Backbone:
C-alpha cells in the first residue's frame, strides 16, 4: 500500500524562455530541465492502487511562466476529446488532465487548471467547503495557454501559465502545494488517477493537495485589475 501522509518535494530547474514551443508535442530536449511527476495512483474505482496506464507530468518554469507538460499513455481509439469552448462543463466527459495549485499552501483552496487531450480549457477555484454547492467557483479565470495532441500511444499536452495570473504570497521564492489528476474512461467506467493518494472518506479534497513545488527567483508582475464603479 501507499503511505497516506507521504509528502514529496519537487524542485524543477528553470528553462530558458525560448526552450519550450507550445505545440502539444513533447519534443526531445524541450523539457530537459523539467522534473517528472508520475500520476501513478488510481483512486477510483480502485482504492489507491498502482495506476494501470502510465501518465507523466513534466514541470519547469521561467522567470514569468510555469510550464506543465503531460504524456498520458493510452490507445488513441480509447481517447475521448472534442474542441470545446472554455469552461464547457462537458469537458468532464472527455479525457482530462487537471493540475491543482495551492499557492498559499494553507489547504484553504486549490486553483484547478484542466485541459482535455486536445488542449481545451476549464479552470475552477476549489474551496475547502462543507457542501458541494460552495465547493467550486468556475467563474474564476486564469489566462493560460494550452495545446494538446493525440499521438500513437496516447496524448500529449503542453501548458504555459503566467505567474502574473495567479494569486500567491509576496516573494520571488515560492513553495506551493501541487497535485496532478487524470481522468479517462475504460469499457464505460470512469477511471481517476492522481500523483498522490486520495482518501475517499475525507470530503476535503483541497486538504489532500500536499506535495511541495519549489520555485526560485521568479519575477513578480501581479495581476492588475481595474474595478469600474
Residues:
Amino acid at each position: 500500500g501507499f503511505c497516506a501522509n507521504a509528502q514529496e518535494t519537487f524542485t524543477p530547474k528553470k528553462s530558458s524562455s525560448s526552450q519550450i514551443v507550445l505545440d502539444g508535442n513533447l519534443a526531445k530536449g524541450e523539457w530537459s530541465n523539467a522534473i517528472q511527476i508520475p500520476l501513478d495512483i488510481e483512486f477510483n474505482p480502485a482504492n489507491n492502487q498502482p495506476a494501470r496506464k502510465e501518465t507523466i507530468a513534466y514541470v519547469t518554469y521561467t522567470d514569468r511562466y510555469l510550464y506543465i507538460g503531460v504524456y498520458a499513455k493510452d490507445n488513441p481509439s480509447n481517447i475521448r476529446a472534442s474542441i470545446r469552448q472554455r469552461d464547457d462543463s462537458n469537458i468532464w466527459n472527455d479525457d482530462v488532465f487537471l493540475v491543482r495549485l495551492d499557492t498559499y499552501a494553507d489547504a484553504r483552496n486549490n486553483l484547478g487548471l484542466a485541459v482535455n487531450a486536445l488542449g481545451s480549457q476549464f479552470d475552477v477555484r476549489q474551496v475547502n467547503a462543507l457542501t458541494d454547492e460552495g465547493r467550486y467557483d468556475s467563474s474564476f479565470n486564469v489566462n493560460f495557454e494550452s495545446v494538446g495532441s493525440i499521438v500513437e500511444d496516447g496524448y500529449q499536452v503542453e501548458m504555459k501559465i503566467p505567474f502574473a495570473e495567479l494569486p500567491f504570497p509576496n516573494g520571488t521564492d515560492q513553495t506551493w502545494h501541487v497535485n496532478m489528476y487524470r481522468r479517462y474512461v475504460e469499457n464505460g467506467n470512469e477511471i481517476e488517477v492522481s500523483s498522490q493518494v486520495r482518501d475517499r472518506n475525507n470530503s476535503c479534497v483541497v486538504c489532500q493537495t500536499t506535495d511541495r513545488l519549489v520555485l526560485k527567483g521568479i519575477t513578480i508582475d501581479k495581476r492588475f485589475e481595474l474595478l469600474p464603479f
